[in-house]
Amino acid sequence: MSKPPINSSRRKHLKTSAKMLGFILFFGEAEIAWGAKILGVRIWPAEDYTRITLESDKALPISQQLLTNPDRLVVDVQGMELNSTLKDLVAKVKPNDPYVSQIRVGQFQPGMVRLVFDLKEPVKPQLFTLDPIAEYQYRMVLDLYPATPPDPLMELVKSSARKESALEKANEEIDLIAQFATKKEKEAPRAPVAQAIPDVKQPAAPAKHKRLITIAIDAGHGGEDPGAIGAMGSKEKHVVLSIAKRLRDKIENDPYMRPFLTRDGDYFVPLHTRVQKARRVEADLFISIHADAFIEPRAKGASVFALSQMGASSTTARWMANKENASDLIGGINIKTQDKQLANLLLDMSTTAQIKDSLQVGTSILKQISGFAPLHKPKVEQASFAVLKAPDIPSILVETAFISNPQEEARLNDDAYQDRIAEAILRGIKDYFSKNPPVARRASA
């Protein structure tokens, strides 16, 4: 029996259907083979550590092994095929990366990509994954820490050795002047009371600075965490780092103070690590610099915040503290290695004295800023900012302006405004320490 003829329109429809079926089968096989889709690869090199991030639309099973002779790290990522985005990782390695000399990427086996990191020195890698948050999807994070991390206090002492020596010499000269004046006073004959010369005000003796004052400057956000973003695309992390470096340079030029930056480049530092760094260099003051956004674009003006143990001083202060405290989630913190005991200790030990001193220095700085810029609030506000919880260091957070306000965003990108903000902070610091000189360090045991 012969088959009925197929007319041309039906034949065309069958061919089209077959092509669509083939496309669906091909696409389905591709999804099975590729698994996750890589959305981006990023590298954040820094002296503290180098971070490598792979962002994908699905969580990826990963494993690692550390090899020596030569030093290298091998990372296997399951559920994907090698593609152009992954290959881009090779070109992202910078010559000045302290820890990675090059990256090799290859298809280890079907459905598994192997990344080999050739290292410049031994490292202690931390590998972890992050769930989607903010604008990010799933992230695989690889942090390469030096096996022998540098001591920040020793580095600070070395960098300020010349200034320390000059201060010691000046103090010795002041001691000699004081001793000479005391000796002359003892040797001078006493005049009869009837011939006594009326009191003449003598010039004040030169002030003696027992030691250098250490100022920890904390540029907010960094790396994976851009902070607030203005309408023109300005990122808070870049603006505040620029202001922090200006303040550092001004403090460096002062003979009685020395600066320490918690971050000096575009990389992420967890909030509790910022506090740890300030304590390790025995800072006398901690200043965290920000340029935040608010839900209302008309919000404007600079603000200064101190820690609160009794809740926020305003709804805005509470909102901003919650936003800043979310930095760890966006920047990417390894929960497994976070020192929860330390975090609880800092929370419990935050003292009334620390908060009192923080309010004083904050008031001094706010007064200086008010001389040329509008203020969001006329007094220092308080909230539970995690980055201000050093129990033994006066700590403040300075919101230099609202980057969400178009006019203030333009101002924040102006070199002159950045310099005036840094100068105002410096003047506030000097005013505070002129009234509250730091005590001498206790001799180490």
Walk me through this protein's architecture.
The chain is an alpha/beta fold. 38% of the residues lie in helices and 21% in strands. It has twelve helices and 14 strands. The longest helix is centred in the first third of the chain and has 27 residues. It is globular, with a radius of gyration of 30 Å.
Query: Topology as H/E string?
Result: HEEEEHEEEEHHEHEHEEHHHHEEHH
Radius of gyration: 30 Å
Q: Beta-sheet strand percentage?
A: 15-25%
Distance between the termini: 107 Å
Please summarize the sheet with the most strands.
6 strands, mixed
Oligomer: single chain
Task: Give a quick rundown of the structure.
By secondary structure, the chain is an alpha/beta fold. About 7% of the residues have low confidence.
Provide key terms for this protein.
445 residues; alpha/beta; 6-stranded mixed sheet; 4-stranded antiparallel sheet
Topology:
Elements lengths: L7 H27 L3 E7 L5 E7 L5 E6 L4 E7 L5 H8 L8 E10 L2 E8 L3 E8 L7 E9 L5 H8 L1 H27 L25 E7 L16 H17 L4 E5 L9 H10 L4 E6 L12 E5 L7 H11 L1 H5 L8 H10 L2 H18 L11 E3 L11 E5 L6 H7 L2 H21 L10
Parallel strand pairs: 9-10, 9-11, 11-14, 12-13
Antiparallel strand pairs: 1-2, 2-8, 3-4, 4-6, 5-6, 7-8, 12-14
Helix pairs in contact: 5-12, 10-12
